[in-house]
Prior knowledge:
Helices cover about 20% and strands about 35% of the residues. It has a nine-stranded mixed beta sheet, with no helix packed on it. It has a five-stranded antiparallel beta sheet with strand order 25-24-23-26-27, sandwiched between helices. A four-stranded parallel beta sheet has the order 13-12-17-18, sandwiched between helices. By secondary structure, it is α+β, with helices and mostly antiparallel strands. Helix 1 (about 175-185) crosses helix 9 (about 440-450). It comes from Ponticaulis profundi. Its cofactor is Mg(2+); Mn(2+). This is Probable alpha-L-glutamate ligase. Belongs to the RimK family.
Amino acid sequence: xxxxxxxxxxxxxxxxxxxxxxxxxxxxxxxxxxxxxxxxxxxxxxxxxxxxxxxxxxxxxxxxxxxxxxxxxxxxxxxxxxxxxxxxxxxxxxxxxxxxxxxxxxxxxxxxxxxxxxxxxxxxxxxxxxxxxxxxxxxxxxxxxxxxxxxxxxxxxxxxxxxxxxxxxxxxxxxxxxxxxxxxxxxxxxxxxxxxxxxxxxxxxxxxxxxxxxxxxxxxxxxxxxxxxxxxxxxxxxxxxxxxxxxxxxxxxxxxxxxxxxxxxxxxxxxxxxxxxxxxxxxxxxxxxxxxxxxxxxxxxxxxxxxxxxxxxxxxxxxxxxxxxxxxxxxxxxxxxxxxxxxxxxxxxxxxxxxxxxxxxxxxxxxxxxxxxxxxxxxxxxxxxxxxxxxxxxxxxxxxxxxxxxxxxxxxxxxxxxxxxxxxxxxxxxxxxxxxxxxxxxxxxxxxxxxxxxxxxxx
Length: 459
């Protein structure tokens, strides 16, 4: 006959789904419901798929050891404690591991900061083949809080995330796909209008306000900041970072990508191929400036532009000089760039996620147009990249500091040349042409970066 699985009156347990490797629990058959210590309990998500996030300090003797967990809510019920007090608690379902055994249980969340044990192990969590020996302590193998020291080296535990999508256009294709992909993987993705955010900045508190209320803390932020509000959008993104949220692309990297002159200088420093580029301030340098890029035809680009806006082709030296004078008359900051005729109105968009080029398309400009942007009527088709092209795209994204990037390159006889590194690449063209779930891969990458057990500040 098989011996019963024995529990002592106290045991070490783990919660793999929550990423908690060691909790000391009191086994109490007099209590019907199991309870787990939790503070700063915060529900989030839609009504049909509610989630809860909470802070836990697993070691009552070391309150500096604190972690964030989150899980789906399965119920909310009234629980009466041993002292007769009744409390409305959130209930989550999760797996508990004790020795070699692992099984699902329901556990309520409550503040047990004045209790000696961070978990109360109630009788409904005890399997039928288990017996409790009230005279034994730690009948199963003992664990240690030292296990938490190993967490930075462990693979992140997947958990529901609360993600802010910074955008003024939540209904465009890219934003809708990111929301859809996040929700498909169990996360809550909330679109937030960047321009409606305002901030309280102080030594002890970093708050973001929105429509008269303080925004809750988010696990991560996906920035889709429009060029027209770059400066303010980056200030908002920095504030999110100050609250402990992981930024999919960091503010400084986005700023560098938006400043075409700075981006080209950074790429040049790393000896990454690009069309010859020139920049000057004095109108006396106009003729020499045009000569530096090989003469006409020449491309003029505003330093702050996107989707082909502010990019002009001058097909003769006289036209180039006139355009330079016109731009300067408007106090516009611009650069001149070599026109690569052999590209024939084609460029290649390489989509970089993390340190990997996950997909690429070749874009062809519409007839009579030199800009291949899809917003300008260009067309796109999937394309296979060479090893050199992949390496250049990766290096370009790394040089600017972007985790997610659309790197535009020209295929030339001298090898690939980087035109631009985009920090908010659109998804519609590349997903349509390649039939790949780019949005899903972005969310997957984000999951690996937001550690479920990172120490975070709750103010």
